[in-house]
From TrEMBL:
Main location, first listed in the record: mitochondrion
Stored InterPro entries: Cpn60/GroEL, Cpn60/GroEL/TCP-1, GroEL-like_apical_dom_sf, GROEL-like_equatorial_sf, Sugar_P_trans_dom, TCP-1-like_intermed_sf
Swiss-Prot/TrEMBL GO biological process terms: protein refolding
Annotated Gene3D superfamilies: GroEL, GroEL-like equatorial domain, TCP-1-like chaperonin intermediate domain
Membrane-spanning intervals of the chain: 12-33, 45-65, 77-96, 102-121, 130-148, 154-174, 186-207, 227-249, 256-277, 283-300
Similarity section: Belongs to the chaperonin (HSP60) family.
Compartments in which it is found: Mitochondrion; Plastid, Chloroplast
NCBIfam families tied to this protein: PRK00013.1, PRK12849.1
Domain of life: Eukaryota
Name of protein: Chaperonin cpn60
């Protein structure tokens, strides 16, 4: 007994195409044969006989191989043969009483029932949304066809519904038989037609066709002896042989639903041929509904499912064949329970192996995708071409930036992804907003951006001038290298020139000392706004060179200057839950109580008394310590969220002696005292001073939240 193997993809495509062509032509040929030979039972029996003899003779001659006909296999195959016979018998009688179009419309309805049967009995996934839509389209087209069919009769549509039920059962059930018995293709054809030929006489007697054939033989008249009938029957038998081969082979190669959809799609060809050469087709409206139904069948997508069931059935075929060999051979497996146990074990082992292979393949594919994403291919360029593209990027960026140069520079409008366009005269802002599609050009632009950013970080101004100088140096450098100058000698020359220029600038520089001079510089930076320049001069006069000046949007139409005297701590709040101003991401405490402690605070008992005092006096609370963690931090957050106490904890700046010195300075400023010992468990901190105002601000552009802490007293 041979086990079934899955054919390669090109062979599968050939089998499906062969089945589609034979099925399309056979419908018209059978329609013509039944009109010339008006004995449907005998016609199908002759087809079965032709197929059985053809397979047997070609097998004897060595042109094909089929499995031997045995009684045990025949018993198992008999239900499938009965279903197949009923499908062919109802098909023939449908063509006898209705036209080809009616046969096609009911043939196209099979996905409706096959989809349900596949889901319920074959373990296929439920139809997708597109599949469900296609089923609705098929049903709507069928209803429209029936409504426009002027030749509708009870007999014709009775056979049509009988054919629909049997062909659906045949599609689903025979698929199971094909994959479970382990027969090869011609073995299936032999078993199917021999058993169907045995079934045929019973239906002759049930339908009374045996009397019609007997009368025709006795009278020597009727279509039984006409040449046209003989040719039509012969052609039908030949195509029956072909479709049996392609049909069974396609059933083994694809899922039941895929097989059904193939039958629906090939009806396009049947309709075209029928309309062209046959005069018994439907009305134009009926043809439109018919094509509508076939289009719905094309949209049907459940055919792509079923790979899992095919693999499962293929495993079952192999395992069942092995077990049957054991039963016939040495008799190791004595009862059915042992057979099922072995099948179940081997089936699960095979599935587990396939699952491991699938997981490994998925992991490899994922790794390759990640590698291709993280390690994209690099384009390598050398020499003049590389320098030319980089220079082009430098020049285009410098052209956009240079218009902002000087006190009378012009504004640049920059598009933003969100919000209104940005109008600016700042060279570094313009440079940062420029990106090129060409990667090499973008490299040149990035070099200029680095220069502008470095200038902005060190000097805070002159970014446009730095950009223009970079462009000139890069352009002249490219010319020199192209002319043959050594690049390293050129670099040394540039460094010497930089030293000379810096020395000259220092000798010619004039230090700014008065407020009027500072106001002049501020006015130039503010695009000539004298009022803003004077505010900058006043701020510089108040805070000095080491002071911090921040700019914020005001709530009025006037420009205002607010000076806060105090000190800055390079630390911020430990937890974002301490924020009081969500819009500005600030923690602002007005007239708080302040605790300064050098060590860590982790116990709840250490801060309970302090929280009670803050709650009693309705005052905010600020804790400055090495760290506030664990239960102590959780207690502060809970009191902030639930009790409404404004509280904030920050880490003391610095390390070791520097931290102690900084805390001493803070204590001097606030008039308090620094605790330098660990607070004993059960003890609490004491407050010695009350401060007037505390303002904690965050620079949001930094990932590690660097906060400026300003302290002042009234």
């Amino acid at each position: 007994m041979s086990s079934s193997t899955k054919p390669p993809h090109y062979a599968t495509s050939g089998l499906v195409i062969g089945y589609a062509l034979c099925s399309s032509l056979l419908a018209i040929i059978n329609k013509y044969a039944i009109t010339q030979f008006n004995y449907p039972g005998l016609l199908t029996a002759l087809q079965y006989l032709t197929l059985a003899l053809g397979v047997y003779l070609f097998g004897k001659l060595g042109f094909l191989h089929h499995d031997p006909f045995t009684i045990p296999i025949a018993k198992k195959f008999f239900p499938a043969a009965l279903v197949f016979f009923l499908a062919i018998f109802t098909n023939t009688n449908l063509l006898r009483h209705a036209n080809v179009d009616t046969f096609i419309i009911f043939r196209s309805l099979t996905p409706l029932l096959v989809a349900l049967a596949d889901t319920a009995f074959r373990g296929q996934p439920s139809p997708s949304n597109l599949t469900f839509f296609s089923l609705v389209v098929i049903l709507a087209g069928a209803v429209g066809y029936v409504a426009t069919d002027s030749g509708v009769t009870l007999t014709a549509y009775s056979w049509a519904f009988a054919y629909l039920v049997t062909i659906t059962t045949e599609m689903v059930y025979i698929k199971h038989m094909v994959m479970s018995l382990g027969l090869n293709t011609w073995g299936f054809v032999l078993y199917n037609n021999v058993l169907s030929l045995m079934i045929a006489p019973f239906f002759w007697f049930l339908t009374g066709e045996n009397f019609e054939v007997s009368n025709a033989i006795n009278s020597s008249t009727g279509s039984l002896f006409e040449m046209n009938a003989f040719l039509a029957v012969s052609l039908s038998c030949v195509f029956g042989l072909l479709i049996s081969f392609f049909g069974f082979a396609a059933r083994k190669a694809v899922s039941a639903t895929a097989f059904t959809v193939t039958g629906v799609v090939n009806k396009f060809l049947t309709v075209a041929i029928n309309v062209t050469i046959w005069d018994k087709h439907a009305s134009p409206a009926g043809l439109v509904c018919l094509l509508f139904t076939i289009i719905g069948g094309v949209l049907y997508q459940q055919s792509i499912t079923g790979n899992g069931s095919q693999q499962r059935d293929a495993v079952v075929v192999t395992k069942q064949s092995d077990i049957e060999s054991n039963l016939v051979g040495d008799g190791d497996l004595e009862d059915e329970s042992e057979v099922k146990a072995v099948m179940n074990y081997e089936f699960q082992t095979s599935l587990a192996s396939k699952a491991r292979i699938a997981r490994t393949s998925t992991h490899q594919i994922g790794s390759r995708v990640a590698w291709s994403r993280n390690y994209a291919a690099k384009e390598i360029k050398f020499g003049v071409d590389a320098r030319a593209l980089m220079l082009k990027g430098v020049e285009e960026l410098a052209e956009a930036v240079k218009v902002t140069m000087g006190p009378k520079g012009r504004n640049v409008v920059i598009e933003q992804s969100f919000g209104a366009p940005k109008v600016t005269k700042d060279g570094v802002t313009v440079a940062k907003s420029i990106e090129f599609k060409d990667k090499v050009k973008n490299i040149g632009a990035s070099l200029v951006k680095q220069v502008a950013n470095a200038t902005n970080d060190v000097a805070g101004d002159g970014t446009t001038c730095a950009t223009v100088l970079t462009r000139a140096i890069f352009a002249e450098g490219c010319k020199s290298v192209a002319a043959g100058m050594n690049a390293m000698d050129l670099r040394r020359g540039i460094n010497m020139a930089v030293d000379a220029v810096v020395t000259s600038l220092k000798s010619r520089a004039r230090m700014i000392s008065t407020s009027e001079e500072i106001a002049q510089v501020g006015t130039i930076s503010a695009n000539g706004e004298r009022e803003i320049g004077e505010l900058i001069a006043k701020a510089m006069e108040k805070v000095g060179k080491e002071g911090v000046i921040t700019i914020a949007d005001g709530k009025t139409l006037l420009n205002e200057l607010e000076v806060v005297e105090g000190m800055k701590l390079d630390r911020g709040y430990i937890s974002p839950y301490f924020i009081t101003n969500q819009k500005n991401q600030k923690c602002e405490l007005e007239d708080p109580l302040i605790i300064i402690h050098e060590k860590k605070i982790s116990s709840i008992n250490s801060i309970v008394k302090v929280l009670e005092l803050a709650l009693k006096k309705q005052r905010p609370l600020l804790i400055v310590a090495e760290d506030v963690e664990s239960d102590a931090l959780a207690t502060l957050i809970l009191n902030k969220l639930r009790a409404g106490i404004k509280v904030c904890a920050i880490k003391a700046p610095g390390f070791g002696e520097n931290r102690k010195s900084g805390l001493q300075d803070l204590a001097v400023l606030t008039g308090g005292q620094v605790y330098t010992k660990v607070v004993p468990k059960g003890d609490s901190l004491r407050i010695h001073h009350e401060l007037a105002k505390l303002d904690i601000m965050m620079k949001s552009h930094m990932w590690s939240m660097t906060l400026g802490l300003f302290l002042s007293s009234q």
